[in-house]
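Customer ticket, subject: "Can you confirm the structure for PZP protein?"

Message body: Hello, I'm evaluating your service for our small team and ran a test protein. I'd like someone to confirm that this is what the system normally returns, since I don't have a reference to compare against.
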Amino acid sequence: KTENMKLGGISIYLCVSLQGGVDNEVTLTAYITIALLETPLPLTHSVVRNALFCLETAANQRENHVYTKALLAYAFALAGNSEKRKALLDSLEKEAVRKDGSVHWQRPGKEPEADLPYYRHRAPSAEVEMTAYVLLAHLTSQPAPAQEELAFASLIAKWISSQQNPNGGFSSTQ
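Agent reply: Thanks for trying us out. I re-ran your input and got the following:
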């Protein structure tokens, strides 16, 4: 499915399947806001300001999907909103899956794969993507991340690196 949006006179086409299986305006807005902030457009640009206002409103909703929270945390980290970033990361930490000395996130209702001898399961791309966004949110802070945050980030990085395929790539294109 493809979405067509007008942004400041520019048409933007996004594939909804790249939204971690979450098909809503908040996720799409977060993707676009992240892209604009990485461009970098200044926070004072009207499109960025309006997008961040929408995301701030959405971040206050309790029923946000874990994938959406990961995107929101990274968007607020890029925007320098440490209060929203921290609140979302605290919420995400409660939903983290801790296993074998690593940390990651998975979609609600997604059953963990059984560990089979001589076979290492690789997570679906949505899990890799959302975990990577959480890692980016942890590492994108002003001032630099504290030592305990870096220690937690290393547990996330450990899980992400375990998801590499034999050629060094990942299932995700994000």
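A couple of notes from the result: The CA atoms of residues 161 and 168 lie 9 Å apart. The chain has a mean pLDDT of 84. Feel free to reply with more questions.
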